[in-house]
Amino acid sequence: MDWTPRTRSSGATLSEPVVGVVFPGQPRARVADTTVPPSCWVGRLVTSWPDGSRTWGTATLLDDRHLITCAHNFYNTRVGVGAAQATFWPGLNRDAHGGLVQPYNALPVLRYRVPDIYQRIGGPPPGPGGIPSNEITRYLYDYAVARLGTAISDPPGDSQFDTSWPGTNVVDGLQCTILGYSGDLDTTGCTQYTRSGAVRVDDGENFLLYQMSTYHGDSGAPVFYQPPGRHFWRIVGVHVSGVPSTPGTTNGRNFAVALTEDVIAHLQQMLNQVDS
């Protein structure tokens, strides 16, 4: 979609994309140097809305101009409103003393695209504790792409992330990493954090499930791995939200849309649309 929002409820206050579940014993670490691949191609996405509010999440460069993130960073289905504008801050971080580190220029988003079906039936921005397990299918299409107004400079240069599905048999049980801007650890959303863990592909091959901790600001973060002996990183999921554990159990999980071949084909169509 373009920058002309479709507003169904004027004057509504848009909630921040407070997303995910924090699990005991699942630590996240501050990225010490975000100029080092692949952290240099992940950044903070700041979104401005028609009511004047702002939210933030995570986005990833796919080359030198295009981003992948989640749809609810750009479109709020609760009130039927699209983002007014957005800015991408690649590699934004804080040092060990809390000082702001901005190794690269902030770049405005020129155009973005959210799946039409997400706008019609997608779930609203998830709340602080995640979502009920019976609502997870509302986020099947919670992915989006964007085109920057200016190609990113070198450094950091052309991204070495790609989207490619190596097969469910490879992804199920795979050790993956998430890079994002967890708001419970830095309430300003300016620190990039890393965490790693095994992912599971759900029975419908629609989602990746994991117990890597996430929170506000991790919306749209890449779930990825580096194939052995390769100099690139493969994104296999876009982080969405979490389902908290039921009382007395440890069955909670966070989840991402799985970037299967069908989803990647849809993403390519959307990339062509933001380029046209």
UniProtKB/TrEMBL annotation:
Name this protein carries in UniProt: Trypsin-like peptidase domain-containing protein
Record keywords, A-Z: Signal
Superkingdom as given in the UniProt entry: Bacteria
